Amino acid sequence: MKKRLSRITDILARYPAGRGNLIPILQDIQGEFGYLSEETVEELERLMGISANEIYGVVTFYTQFRFRPPGRHRIQSCQGTACHVRGGLQILKEFEKRLGITAGRTTADGKFDLERVACLGCCALAPVAAVDGEVHAAITAKKVSYILSQYGGEKGRKKK
User: Fold this and answer.
1) Contact yes or no for 33/40 (Cβ under 8 A)
2) Which neighbouring-strand residues pair with 113?
3) pLDDT band with cut points at 50, 70 and 90 for residue 109
4) Per-domain boundaries in the chain
5) How many Cα atoms occupy the beta-carbon half-sphere of 21 within 13 Å?
């Protein structure tokens, strides 16, 4: 706890005091810890003099912020126009089915995050998904199982 508080204090020291720096401070803290805990919000309230309600208002407005620790692997399923036309929604549904979660959630074992994204910029390769930034192109429902197995998913989960 003291170490976390020390890191938060170090981050705050890099910015001039005031509300105008709240977003970059939150970004830096999330970058350091992977997410924004309730304790972190309480510390920011105390250290910055900004109410927890105001901080939560900012954090919940922007989709980049999270209140839960991230999964070890980040899956982004593209839902842009090209991917949508070529079955992107079915691919997302297959990831959800195989992982047992809906988009925006983390698997119970903490192994995967699943995100629905507007575009990965790989339209010619549609439909696509990225795992930890590695793009997988021309995905079919059958390929989802194979992709997950490359990251210790599905087959690895069944053996537990």
Assistant:
1) yes
2) 74, 106
3) very high
4) 2-61, 73-159
5) 14
CA distance 111 to 72: 5
The residues, any chain, with a CB within 8 Å of residue 106's CB and separated by 6 or more, are 68, 69, 70, 71, 112, 113, 114
Q: Measured in Å, how far apart are the chain's first and last C-alpha atoms?
A: 33
Helix (H) or strand (E) holding 94: helix 88-99
Backbone angles phi, psi at 152, to 5 degrees: 80, 20
**Tokens standing for 158?**
């069944």
CATH superfamily of 73-159: Glutaredoxin (3.40.30.10)
Beta strand ranges found along 8-145 (DSSP E): 73-78, 112-117, 129-131, 134-136
**In this predicted model, what pLDDT tens digit does every residue of 123-160 receive, in sequence order?**
999 999 999 999 999 999 999 999 999 998 864 443 33
Of residues 153 and 1, the one with the higher pLDDT is 153
The closest of 72, 64, 137 to 104, measured between CA atoms, is: 64
Q: How far from the centroid of its chain's Cα atoms is residue 128's Cα?
A: 17
pLDDT value, residue 1? 66
